[in-house]
């Protein structure tokens, strides 16, 4: 049974940093695309960064490019999202999702904001 658990959210001041973790169980990352998504109140869900577990290829939305970095640790079956230079508009609930690389690509996953299995989400609040 595929399970994803996010952690690392919290309250941070503008310009600060946070690192989110997505721990996966029941799968081997090598065969999956893992994505980070966010949803702010009253807004649609946005795919912000996705990574291919097979080779580490990454995709970033323009809104986070240059500030966020996605990475994976296959030994720990965990995907990370390092978020730097945070802005108030980054405030949202952040989710990770996974889908088989047989049926999706990281670009499709992020652009379409789609995923087969989802975590419960972690709140990120950027405020002074």
Topology at a glance:
Elements: E1 3-7, E2 10-12, E3 18-25, E4 32-39, E5 46-52, E6 58-60, E7 68-73, E8 78-83, E9 92-100, H1 106-111, E10 117-118, E11 122-126
Parallel strand pairs: 2-11
Antiparallel strand pairs: 1-3, 3-8, 4-5, 4-9, 5-6, 7-8, 9-10, 9-11
Provide an overview of this structure.
The chain has 128 residues and is mainly beta. 5% of the residues lie in helices and 48% in strands. The protein has one helix spanning 106-111, and strands spanning 3-7, 10-12, 18-25, 32-39, 46-52, 58-60, 68-73, 78-83, 92-100, 117-118, 122-126. Strands 2, 4, 5, 6, 9, 10 and 11 form a seven-stranded mixed β-sheet that branches. Strands 1-3-8-7 form a four-stranded antiparallel β-sheet, with no helix packed on it. A hairpin with a 4-residue loop joins strand 7 (68-73) and strand 8. The longest helix has 6 residues, at 106-111.
Task: Quickly describe the structure.
This protein has 128 residues and is mainly beta.
